[in-house]
Amino acid sequence: MATLMIDVRDVAKRFGTNVVLKRVSLQLPAGKILGLIGPSGAGKTTLVKAVLGMESVDAGTTQVLGTTMPNRAIMQRIGYMAQSDALYTRLTARENLRFFGELLGLRGQHLTAAIAHAAQVVNLTADLDRRITAYSGGMKRRLSLAIALLHDPDLLILDEPTVGIDPELRQQIWAELDQLRDQGKAILVTTHVMGEAERCDDLMLIRGGVALAQGTPATLKHDHGVSTIEQVFLKAGRMQDADHRDR
Amino acid sequence: MRIIAIVKRVLREMVRDKRTLALMFLAPLLILTLMYFLFQNNATNVATIGVSRVDSQLVTALKNSHTQIKSYDAQATARTQIRRDNLAAFIHQQDGRLTVIYQNSQPSDTALVRQALQGARTKLKVQALVAATKTQRQALQRQTKVLKTLLQQRPQAGQTVRTPAKSAAVTAPDYTVTSHYLYGSADSTFFDTFLPILLGFFVFFFVFLISGISLLNERTTGTLTRLLATPIRRGEIIAGYLVGYGLFAIVQTVLTVAFALTVFKVHMLGSVAVILLINFLLAMVALSLGIFISTFANSEFQMMQFIPLLIVPQIFFSGLIAVDQMPTWLQGLAHIFPLYYGGQALMDVATRGVGLGAVAGDLWILVLFAVVFTVLNVVGLKRYRRV
After folding, report:
1. How many distinct structural domains can be found in chain B?
2. What are the residue boundaries of the ABC transmembrane type-2 domain, all occurrences included (chain B) (predicted)?
């Protein structure tokens, strides 16, 4: 078994009386893409933030690369793409990339090369010198992804990376993710696009703060006796609701 | 260095936002110019006084460069005339009694009329006194003459009667007054005196607003979270902000002070460098306060709501109104406002010409304010990331 990039054990989190995560565990080894799927409000983003150490948890432990989070040195090795496009709109794409690159300790030739590569992956090379105010939603999404890829991190955490991106480019991005995975990097992706879920190595279904099911897409389909991930999800959801009623 | 990256970004964003830049640099100049003209024209105020059946002597005495007299007949009623002709006051005489009705919607006009009336009464009294002495003297001289002739007719008495000394004649003492001003000069206006405080206030207000709102934007757009997902230290973010906006505050302060000194030729007794230093410290307090307050706001509008709460009261305690004449509890309250210390230091340096040493106490308190808020800001970012 490869080293665990992410090791989350029995994490629980509540905001006031609203329980967002109930004892969720998650393991991600290097060289794998783990898809976190679930409806909005399921607790995906909270779980992702807990992994990054940006959300304190009420119970359980979160470790990245064997280190308990939060830890600033480990941040250097994570590429994070938030759900909202956190970009400086008055700056150009290149200036945004340069700024985050500098924060990540890249400089000089190395930074220039990294910017060129990341921009090429998300197909923004031609638009690098335009201000973000002139960018479309999809372009902003792609730039956010480029920032996450910039410093060639060992672990990528992507929160809804392909929202608003057209199918062709989506394929291109997934091809890049596959390639990174093959290089031995670990990738945690949240999505609610079921078609994307099929492309992950492992899946975790999360609903109402509870991990409903976990496994490879094929195992999940087989175990639930259905032919698509969407059906797996619906079936697992119905079982969860039935379980609640019985109590 | 990560701080430099933040500073560069803050500066670049600011330069791109032309309107905010204009607000920060030009708005203070505009307001100063307006105030300059508003307070310069104070001296040419003229109040119109309506008179009815008032002795002509008194009316003449009432006239001065600040009053204008309008006569009405006996039937005129004060209230109607004041409203119709916009009189500052209406004076009506019945036998020896004067009745004055003030419009009193402009306290400064009321004061002018009161002054004129007081002056006129004094003048008339002095005139009456002089006249009385004159008649007395004439009477005395007549008596002396009579006495002399009587004595000449009876020389055997051998006694001379001393004529009353000429000096006995009453002459009103005529003083020449030479005025010296310890601070400023005879043409010191409200503007000259309070300009230093106004400078400090503008710096404080605009820096507070701009730094607070820009950090608020970082919070609401998620860039702050994004920043904290990099290995940056919390202190580096705050330091980057302090340096970036601090540079703008310096430019703003220098521009405003230079404008006041060159265009309006305002007298500043103390060193301009110390004035700049005080303003810079005020800007640092405003900067750290703005960032701190932005924690409690969820939108720009909520940020604006802090202006009447935190900024406006500072004006009252900045020295525009004499703090030492306030009730004790208000004087105590003044001490929690940074602008109280800033205003005091600015006044001392600009109008009293004291040096850096004399205002050091105030400056250290400003430094303390800035340090406390900065520490609170660094700690406050723990909300986003605990390390």
Report:
1. 2
2. 155-384
